[in-house]
Design goal:
TIM Barrel, alpha/beta, globular, Non-ribosomal Peptide Synthetase Peptidyl Carrier Protein, Chain A, 8 strands, 18 helices, disordered C terminus
């Protein structure tokens, strides 16, 4: 019997979603909730190592634990052994995610070099059989996130691989339009997603260099894909989700976040991270977001410097002030720690 999430996935992807990409140490339960509050309606967990998950590793178990409000969240797994991936997919399925995504795109040498992530692109035949095995073991939809090839190659395998992944039972494919060897360097070539999409019945999402609402629009119009996935830009500017949806669905440009909104989001993220991780770790892991959250604010550099030197939640909230829209000489600009 087909799991009802197959039909739901097709419906959601039929609305041209803007999806929050899986990012290690970023897309935890707190950040997913924050991104949903500004428009994201599909999200991915952090990368889940199948060996750690099958051993019962605390960190892996944390990553697949979904909150009650974690709607439309997929669990992404990675590994180099197809049998272990299939077994881990069954464990992930028990956590009741929206779907299961297989990481075939991580370029980091310690991952890809061991045959996991983008390492699967070295042997597309084995990659297809691995996906087929996972699809047979679970009832939830199984999707794949991959790159256009390992590189360097004149003809990237994604052009044929996408069709073969569909034949293997993949419910959707996300294509990061760089090779593994490129990492995050160079420009993403969306034309590969366009060519891979031709003839496929399953949804295809385009990923890479989607930094603005205009990028999202251009990516969809130029490729004919069914959605876009946003990664690094969301770390510093989660408002990209509401901005992209405003343009894609309403044809309207959404007003950028106000000064008050930026400060309020900093406060919300700090409080939630401390609630989830405690002090001082919860404070420290929020720092990677600060340069983007505070971008454009008068005195942003000084404000950020103070926050980077403060390890307590109370101290950070004092620096940020009340979170209300401040005036030109506000406490948020001039507070002393």
């Amino acid at each position: 019997m087909t799991h009802p999430n197959h039909a739901r996935l097709a419906a959601v992807y039929g609305r041209r979603p803007v999806v929050l990409a899986p990012m290690e140490d970023v897309t935890d339960v707190v950040f997913r909730r924050l991104c949903r509050s500004v428009g994201a309606d599909v999200a991915m967990t952090e990368f889940v190592n199948v060996e750690g998950l099958l051993r019962g590793c605390r960190n892996a178990k944390r990553k697949i634990r979904l909150a009650d409000d974690d709607r439309d969240t997929a669990i992404q797994i990675y590994g180099a052994d197809p049998d272990r991936l299939a077994e881990a997919a069954e464990v992930a399925e028990a956590a009741e995610p929206f779907f299961i995504d297989v990481n075939c795109g991580c370029w980091v040498p310690k991952i890809a070099g061991r045959g996991a992530g983008a390492g699967w692109l070295r042997d597309p035949e084995k990659m297809v059989e691995m996906v087929r095995m996972i699809v047979r073991r679970v009832s939830l939809p199984v999707t794949v996130k991959t790159r256009i090839g390992y590189g360097p190659e004149d003809r990237m395998p994604i052009l044929d691989l996408a069709r073969r992944l569909e034949d293997a039972g993949a419910a959707a494919i996300t294509i990061h339009c760089r090779t593994a060897q490129m990492g995050h360097g160079g420009a993403a070539d969306w034309s590969y997603a366009a060519r891979a999409k031709v003839g496929l019945q399953i949804p295809v999402l385009v990923n890479g260099d989607v930094r603005t609402a205009d990028d999202a629009m251009r990516a969809l119009e130029s490729t004919g894909c069914d959605g876009v996935m946003v990664g690094r830009r969301a770390i510093e500017h989660p408002w990209i989700f509401r901005e992209a949806y405003g343009l894609l669905r309403d044809g309207a440009r959404v007003t950028p976040p106000t000064r008050g909104e930026r400060l309020a989001l900093c406060k919300e993220h700090l409080v939630a991270n401390v609630g989830e991780r405690g002090e001082p770790h919860g404070v420290r892991v929020t720092r990677r977001h600060l340069s983007g959250y505070l971008s454009g604010l008068p005195g942003a550099a000084q404000l950020r410097q103070k926050l980077n030197l403060c390890d307590s939640l109370a101290g950070c909230l004092e620096i940020l002030g009340s979170g209300r829209e401040p005036g030109p000489t506000s406490h948020a600009d001039g507070a002393q720690r």
